[in-house]
UniProtKB/TrEMBL annotation:
This is Glutamate racemase. Coiled coil: none annotated. It is an enzyme of class 5 (isomerase). InterPro entries: Asp/Glu/hydantoin_racemase, Asp/Glu_race, Asp/Glu_racemase_AS_1, Glu_race. The lineage of its organism: Bacteria, Pseudomonadati, Pseudomonadota, Betaproteobacteria, Neisseriales. It holds the Pfam family Asp_Glu_race. Substrate binds at residues 6-7, 38-39, 70-71, 180-181. PANTHER family: GLUTAMATE RACEMASE. Its EC number is 5.1.1.3. HAMAP family: Glu_racemase. Keywords: Cell shape, Cell wall biogenesis/degradation, Isomerase, Peptidoglycan synthesis. Belongs to the aspartate/glutamate racemases family. GO terms for biological process: cell wall organization; peptidoglycan biosynthetic process; regulation of cell shape. It catalyses: L-glutamate = D-glutamate. The gene is murI.
Length: 259
């Protein structure tokens, strides 16, 4: 089974890509909504959640674990790799391809404050964005809007415009989406940028990485494609309402508090 987790529903943007690439694989997706958003939490808290979630998913039969959250990857992937022996795939902002493709020599990365301030992003910038000006911007309030299923209302539009409009005068030609919630706001981002600016969502690259690892490890496809969805908050009712909206399909949602 492929196990995936995020602070909430954002990782479903990665789920879509993994599901499309590996339709026969069972996937268990856990939304740690009791602790969402991670972006305003401390490193210690995010690591503590990562270890609890990882242990639970391992107990459910995970053969590979996808951290479908940039913030959790940034804070906790090293600790997770030390704690668990199963292969772990993390996600990070697509700064490398965005910088490599830039003609104007100016790009932006949108992510949580936590991710933007992290050493991991600094390392990516140092390694892959030499000579490229990278503007870092946090999508304030965006995660909460996606969690609430508010993907197109006026408040969400205003929150997106507040961040994206000022970028129009900056001569950037690429935006790396460095938070897995943000691809769900792509239509609103595009309303502002039009086609002149290219958006990079790393979800498909993550799906390819998962497929490669499965092949390298010789894991069996386990054929039935059974999907489970779990939340750590409430009774699952809210999340089950969101699934058709975010992934186009209804599924039952289990509640596992993981306190
Ligand atoms: N979806 C997450 C990310 O990719 C985290 C959002 C949050 O919980 O702050 O960074």
């Amino acid at each position: 089974m492929i196990a995936m987790y995020d602070s909430g529903l954002g990782g479903l943007s990665v789920w879509r890509a993994v599901r499309a690439a590996l339709p026969a694989w069972p996937i268990t997706y856990l939304a740690d909504q009791a602790y969402c958003p991670y972006g305003s939490r401390s490193r210690e808290e995010i690591i503590d959640r990562a270890l609890k979630v990882g242990r639970y998913l391992e107990s459910q039969g995970a053969t590979i674990l996808v951290v479908a959250c940039n913030t959790a990857t940034t804070a906790a992937i090293t600790a997770m790799r030390e704690a668990f022996s199963l292969p772990i795939v993390g996600i990070e902002p697509a700064i490398k391809p965005a910088a490599a493709m830039s003609r104007t020599g100016r790009i932006a990365v949108l992510a949580t404050e936590y991710t933007l301030a992290s050493e991991r992003v600094q390392t990516l910038l140092d390694a892959h964005a030499e000579g490229v000006q990278v503007l870092r911007r946090a999508g304030h309030g965006w995660v909460e809007q996606v969690e609430a299923g508010e993907l197109s209302g006026e408040r969400t539009r205003a929150l997106v415009r507040r961040v994206v409009e000022p970028l129009l005068g900056e001569n950037i030609d690429h935006i790396a989406l460095g938070c897995t919630h943000y691809p769900f706001l792509e239509p609103l981002i595009r309303e502002v940028t039009g086609d002149a600016i290219r958006l990079y969502d790393p979800a498909e690259a993550i799906a390819r990485r998962v497929a490669d690892l499965i092949q390298q490890h010789g894991f069996d496809s386990q054929g039935d494609g059974y999907c489970r969805f779990i939340t750590t908050a409430g009774d699952g009712g809210d999340m089950s309402l969101r699934l058709p909206q975010l992934i186009g399909l209804p599924y039952p949602v289990e509640s596992v508090p993981l306190a």
